[in-house]
Amino acid sequence: MMKQIGTLTVAVSLLASLTALDAVKSVQAMPAEAQIANVDKANSYKANAPKRLTAQQIIDGLQLQAHVEGGYFRRTYQADHRDKITTEHGSRYLLTSIFYLLTADAPIGHFHLNRSDILHFYQGGDPIRYTLIKPDGGLEQVVLGSDLAAGQQLQLTVKGGIWKSSELLAGAHGYGLISEAVSPGFDYSDMTLATQGALLTLFPQHKHWIERLAK
């Protein structure tokens, strides 16, 4: 009986060895074509991958111009197919939108206040940190970027009446690109660009951020 068990054990071990050997032979038998196909596929992906743009290429490609608050922008849409809406400060488009870019050479959108609500959409590049001071003095910081695991967001809404600044964070690109949708549509008369002195008078508790991010 023991002899039979021993024979069976040897047979099972031999079968396992042969199965493993067949698996190795099977892999080795797919030689060139599978390996070459994989290499070709990798090379194809690499060849077709978009090249990283520079900040200047984005400025030129999107036809951006310098913004008074810092950074670069271009209006991309205004709802001129609809009647303008009436606000207490005059008639406005229902909605406008822009591209907005911060770069290593222009990394700050300085503190300012808009009457309209603004939605911000991350488009690409390095993350951008928004520092917001609310009318009651509360301070909030939100980072727009692609690293969701790190708490970054793809979208941010800033309601009218909030002081807002933006700052490019360090990264591999040297720029951060977003889009904004503004409603009621943007008008320069609805925007107040802060000075350090005026903002420090209102919110002395936020001296560090005001001195860093206000003109």
TrEMBL record:
Signal peptide as annotated in the record: 1-22
One Pfam family matching this protein: Cupin_5
Keywords from the UniProt entry: Signal
Organism: Neiella marina
Keyword Signal: yes
Record protein name field: Cupin
InterPro entries from the UniProt entry: Cupin_DUF985, RmlC-like_jellyroll, RmlC_Cupin_sf, YML079W-like
Domain of life: Bacteria
DUF985 domain boundaries: 56-194
